[in-house]
Amino acid sequence: MAKGGKGKTTSSKVASKASKVLSDGRYSKTSKSVAGSALAQAKGK
What is the helix (H) or strand (E) element at residue 29, kind and residue range? Predict the structure, then answer.
């Protein structure tokens, strides 16, 4: 979580890109880990 972590959420645009990274087999394990973290902080969870 971001330092201070108060009210920080991922925008819908970033969440959409993160979802695409997770579903695409071309990305590294690290990239998918970052994408998963972004989705975990997305609005409407």
Answer: helix 29-40
Helix, strand, or coil (residue 42): strand
Site of tokens 């969440």: 15
In angstroms, the CA 34 to CA 20 distance is 12
Confidence of residue 43 (pLDDT cuts 50, 70, 90): confident
Whole-model pTM?
0.72
Of the pLDDT bands very low, low, confident and very high (cuts 50, 70, 90), residue 9 is: confident
Residue 42, φ and ψ in degrees, nearest 5: -70, 155
3-class secondary-structure state, position 26: coil
C-alpha–C-alpha distance, residues 12 and 3, integer Å: 21
